[in-house]
Amino acid sequence: MKAVVLVGGEGTRLRPLTETIPKPLVPFMNRPFLDHVLDHLAEHGVDEVVCSSPYLEAVFHAFLETRAGRAPAVRWITEAEPLGTAGAIAGARELLDGTFLALNGDILTDMDLGALAEAHRTRGAVATIALHRVEDARPFGLVETEADGRVVAFREKPAQPVAAAINAGVYVLEPEALSEVPPGRMVSIERETYPDLIARGEPVYATVAGGYWLDLGTPEAYLRAHADALDGRIAEYRGAARPTLAPGARVEPGASVGPHVVMGRAAVVAAGAEVDRSILHADVRVGRDARVNTSILGPGSEVGAGAEVRDAVLGERARVEEGARVLGSRVSAGDVVAPA
Asked: What pTM does this model have?
């Protein structure tokens, strides 16, 4: 089976991390997130994946070189400009010769993709949408279905908190589902393609998928996903060390690092520093007696001695000087924060 993984978004909600790293390559548990997606697809029998992105394309190519020889094989299509979800999938149609999977490249899930594909075939669907139940559906569009799962409408985001099954961003499609999508044009599969198929009476179905699911599009979700992994809520990471340290990472004597911390390769927390509920990417330096809490420190960033970083995101090689404070804000790649 083949799959299309949508990796073209610029990740604006995750800036400044995504100023220099494409969102699908931001590390999760010390591995590029797309690595997890591709491995999950391989576990469900996907042998070829198509990806495309107009954003930081060279970084993707460097990542794909690290996966040479590993399943699934990845075909790259250069996308000169953003084409939206349906436009990007349609751009791969010459490489798709049967039923295929399509999924957003920023969704962390262990859902059973084989069961989803089987439900699609059993119903004779042209498109099947995976749904996930959430307690608060306000950030998501809703999918209205009949009792047998046939989709009748897509609804706007609810104004009030409501528990509902939302679009999980994972689809099983037949090539003809995209037959009306013009080449080279930006088209949304959720706002245009699916409503058009439904209006034409095509069999579009949805099914609630079990397992873990989280959209990693915000710093809050990114931190939550790591906490879930460290707490054993994600099958792949049950039994993970708490905290988790990559090779070469170092916690100096006298430093305090909480159980919900992940440290990347060669990251260092100096004596007297305290770090909790935070993610430190590769080559991060936290100085003596510094405090870091509920924050994400991008690659090569530095927190000076006695500084405080809380509820913050530091971009690549950002620097918080000795004694400075960064509270509830974001520091762009390469920027320096001095004491007030």
From this structure: 0.88
Residue pair 312/222 in contact (Cβ under 8 Å)? The answer is no
Burial class of 200 by CB neighbour count within 10 A (0 to 12, 13 to 18, 19+) = exposed
Q: What are the tokens at 270?
A: 């100096």
**pLDDT tens-place string over residues 172-227:** 999 999 888 887 788 888 888 999 999 999 999 999 988 899 988 899 999 999 99
Distance between CA atoms of 300 and 318, rounded to whole angstroms? 8
**Which ranges of the chain would DSSP assign to H, the alpha helix?**
33-43, 57-66, 84-90, 113-123, 194-199, 219-230
Identical fold, 2-230 and 244-337 = no
Radius of gyration of the chain (CA): 21
**Domain residue spans of the chain:** 2-230, 244-337
Tell me the pLDDT tens digit for each residue of 111-163.
Answer: 999 999 999 999 999 999 999 988 888 777 778 888 899 998 887 677 777 88
d(CA 318, CA 63): 23
Q: Which fold has domain 2-230?
A: Spore Coat Polysaccharide Biosynthesis Protein SpsA; Chain A (3.90.550)
- Average pLDDT value over all residues in the chain: 90
Q: Which residues contact 174 (CB under 8 A, 6 or more apart)?
A: 98, 99, 125, 126, 127
The CATH fold assigned to 244-337 is UDP N-Acetylglucosamine Acyltransferase; domain 1 (2.160.10)
* pLDDT confidence of residue 54: 66
- 3-state SS, residue 5: strand
What DSSP designation does 298 have?
-
Rounded CA separation 252/237 (Å):
26
Q: Examine the pLDDT at 80 and tell me if it is beyond 70.
A: no
